[in-house]
């Protein structure tokens, strides 16, 4: 249970070091975007890369070459999808979600919250975590494409950051408010 044999430890060192170096090299070549968490798709790639490294290190039936090829394949596919999504809106809408307005000028947008499966307690927790004060002082709470919540208060300003989320999909049917 604590130790099987020296060969397993040796394999871990012999395969682990070059696998790690290959992953770091691929990540440096592919750029910062590969490890961003801008949306769920990016998060899946990050988790898949970690899972692949783990499998290469611990599964004797996976060779170093197979692991390096898997790293390369994941990174190339992620690069292709992000390259296409930057150039074609239709691809972007398939891969990325839109931000959702959950609270506007101190009022909860219940329909949007139900659609996103977010509770009032979760929104209030995000507001407290952000260090913002009174609920009435909150201009907006936005559920971002990566699942995080952005809290905008009167000092944040409205500008272009909020216009992105003001769409027909974010209008509260009961109040008609954005």
Kindly describe this structure.
It is a single chain. By secondary structure, the protein is α+β, with helices and mostly antiparallel strands. It is 55% helix and 10% strand. The chain contains seven helices and four strands. It has a four-stranded antiparallel β-sheet. Strand 1 and strand 2 form a beta hairpin. The chain is elongated and about 65 Å long. It starts with 5 loop residues before the first helix and ends in a 15-residue tail after the last helix. The C terminus is likely disordered.
- Give the helix proportion (percent range): 55-70%
Strand content: 5-15%
Question: Which of globular, elongated, flat, extended, rod-shaped describes the shape?
Answer: elongated
Broad structural category: alpha+beta
Main sheet properties:
4 strands, antiparallel
Characterize this entry briefly.
The chain has helices spanning 6-30, 40-58, 64-87, 89-95, 110-116, 120-130, 159-163; strands at residues 100-104, 107-108, 138-143, 149-153. By secondary structure, it is an alpha+beta fold.
